[in-house]
Design a protein that fits this description.
Domain DNA replication/recombination mediator RecO N-terminal: 1-67
Radius of gyration: 20 Å
Keywords: DNA damage, DNA recombination, DNA repair
Strand order of the largest sheet: 3-2-1-4-5
Function: Involved in DNA repair and RecF pathway recombination.
Number of strands: 9
Largest sheet: 5 strands, antiparallel
Protein name: DNA repair protein RecO
Family: Belongs to the RecO family.
Strand content: 15-25%
């Protein structure tokens, strides 16, 4: 058995004295593990950092075997990502989200979204918006997508400013007014597109994470006996601190 694919490094664990088991999210073969001979060496360590993109050749005698990886770097982002705390937390959290996908089950849209998110970590606010959108995409991929395009009560498509914590559907201003204290705020960047780097506030970002966090916990994590990763909280706190420093004149 042999195939070649593009992949993003999610994690690495040492195997024996010199080898490593590498976990990739690949474009066509999904989340997939393989053994890298010499993967624990100082020469290979820079390549096998989470967030890096690689070309992977996987070989095994049978399809169900762990198999061997031969990897070649194509975009080594890790050195840059390690330079900021929000990026370090963000990459760790993205890898944890990707591990919610079934092993060896292709999810090409998620792969492309992950790659785009990793390429845009320089601005903390932009990175936060991408990560919220990635969490929404993961909910959809896992069968628990939210309907933020139409009002859950009236079917309207305009003036959607709330989300129902029960149904996960958007709610218009008029329909939600009597129950506004029970509804979640729907930030503008999830209604109208991302816009520029200054088109959302810290509260908008926190509102976005509140929405995705609630439904990920309820539908995906708690049924598996899990909770949110520490990296998620670390990312949110790091983004808030960084944006706060940037706002100081």
């Amino acid at each position: 058995m042999e195939w070649t694919d593009e992949g993003i490094v999610l994690g690495v664990r040492r195997h024996g004295e010199s080898s490593a088991i590498v976990e990739l999210l690949t474009r066509e073969h999904g989340r997939h593990l393989g053994l890298v001979r010499g993967g624990a060496s100082s020469r290979m360590r820079p390549l096998l950092q989470p967030g890096n993109s690689v070309t992977a050749v996987w070989r095994a005698r049978l399809d169900e075997h762990l198999g061997m990886y031969a990897l070649e770097g194509t975009r080594l982002r890790a050195a840059t990502l390690l330079g900021s705390s929000h990026a370090v937390y963000g990459v760790t959290h993205l890898a944890a989200l990707a591990r919610l996908l079934p092993e060896r089950d292709p999810h090409e849209d998620i792969y492309e979204m992950l790659e785009g998110t990793l390429d845009d970590f320089e601005d903390a606010g932009v990175a936060a918006v991408h990560l919220i959108r990635f969490e929404l995409a993961m909910l959809t991929e896992l069968g628990f997508g939210l309907d933020l395009e139409n009002c859950a009560a009236t079917g309207e498509t305009t003036d959607l400013i709330y989300v129902s914590p029960k149904s996960g559907g958007a709610v218009s201003r008029a329909a939600g007014e009597p129950w506004r204290d029970r509804l979640l705020p729907l930030p503008a960047f999830l209604r109208e597109g991302e816009g520029g780097a200054n088109s959302w506030s810290d509260q908008d970002l926190l509102d976005g994470f509140q929405i995705t966090g609630l439904f990920l916990l309820r539908h995906v994590l708690e049924p598996r006996g899990q909770g949110h990763s520490d990296a998620r909280d670390g990312f949110i706190n790091a983004v808030t601190r960084r944006r706060g420093r940037s706002a100081v004149p």
